Amino acid sequence: MLNETDLSRTDLNLLVLFEVVLEQRHVGRAAQQLNLSASAVSHGLGRLRRVLQDPLFLKTPKGVVPTARANELAAPIADILARVRNVVASAGPFDPATSTRRFTIGAVDPLSAVLVPPLLSTLRRKAPGIDIALRELLPPERARSPGHGWEPALAALDTRAIDIALLPLADAPARFDSRVLYDEDFVIAARAGHPFAARPTIEGFCAMLHLVVSLTGDAFGFVDRELAQQGRARRIALTVPNFMMALSMLAETDLLAALPRRLALRHARRFGVIGIEPPLALPRFRISAIAPRVALMDAGVAWLFDALRQVAAEGARTGLRRRRVPN
Fold first, then answer.
1. All domains in the chain, ordered by first residue
2. CB distance 103 to 164 below 8 Å
3. pLDDT bucket at 80, cuts 50 / 70 / 90
4. Nearest one of 56, 60, 51 to 20, comparing CA atoms
5. pTM for this prediction
């Protein structure tokens, strides 16, 4: 705890500095973001270390890593800064039409491709001065289902590295506000004219060559678990690191891939792919917008949160929730 003397010589900017260094994991990049010199950031960290009596960040060849104490302090410091920012922002009401703020949205690849383009259209109409920083949230490898393994994303919300997360996660811890945007399922995506579309049986499915989206190249996914329960298997001929690359590869090959329905529907015409109803039961999951409850005290974050819900609702009204993809 800070004693009265320590608090009297502690600059609030030191907490901002802490937050940025924690996010960037690099003194030089933190300095650039703060428009300071690297030496000024190092000096500020030195002051903060003396006050908090901990090294806070340890040097590595690639930057810095937080100590255990720094990780413990991350959430309370983020909470303090969010409250201060809300007080400052409340000095004048948030007006999306005139605001020039930049918000950071974290999302997995397929959700970015589905939700961000219509969000940008909304911003052009209603909030032309607002900018978006999009941060990719990496999917968990070998998670039990698409809705598991998102603790790092929740940690990024806790530290305010991102303002809002878009995740296939129906329930979040109580410190977050989680709003369901839509329910999602999978289709089997393939190039237009693919022979599998004429006879989409489980035997034909297993006989085809397949593509899996995997950041690490791990040729195993939730489809393989479903097949294994039936005593079946398939051949993964290609793994790619993201869904947009998957669509591109499907358009020019005879590979099949299980892709989220909304992603396939939105980009079917662009890539010349079709969606085929899967011949086996695949999981359904809910897409949610998630933000810390304390962050929603910021009228700007709350406005963006509602804008994302409206974008998802408008997508449903214009047919994005249809059960079939063109085939």
1. 4-89 (1.10.10.10), 102-182+287-320 (3.40.190.10), 186-276 (3.40.190.10)
2. yes
3. confident
4. 56
5. 0.68
